[in-house]
Amino acid sequence: MTRPDLAQQVTFLYAEDTEASWRFYEETLELPLVQDQGTCRIYAAAPGDRAFLGVCRARAPRASDNPRVVGGVVFTFVTPDVEGWHEFLKARGVALPPKPEYSEAYRVTHFFVTDPAGYTIEFQRFEREDWPEV
After folding, report:
1. Alpha helices of the chain — where are they, by DSSP H?
2. Cα–Cα distance for residue pair 12/35, rounded to 1 Å
3. How far apart are CA 70 and CA 22, in angstroms?
4. For residue 94, what is the DSSP state?
């Protein structure tokens, strides 16, 4: 049997203060709003209507702020202009590390920020030939 195709991808994050999170993704990151479902908003995470980020009202507080525990999340935006995103977010007052860093282990240039709900958001560029071009 042939595996059926997957056409799109949506990652859902949950926030207690959805208004603050929605402002962060709509106004700070300027992600296009694709659908407002009332308690959940879905944004285009990349051009081409294939990758999306949903931010929904949480039903309970987060169990942990550590993204590397079971159930933890790091949402990564892949971009050829990591430095440009760093400057863009710095100009908007987002708490940032001093500059993007290169990871020899993963061969990526990246930096992390924290959204209003405490999620770790990464901006990353692959520095390897075996990753599909952006």
Report:
1. 18-23, 82-91
2. 13
3. 25
4. -
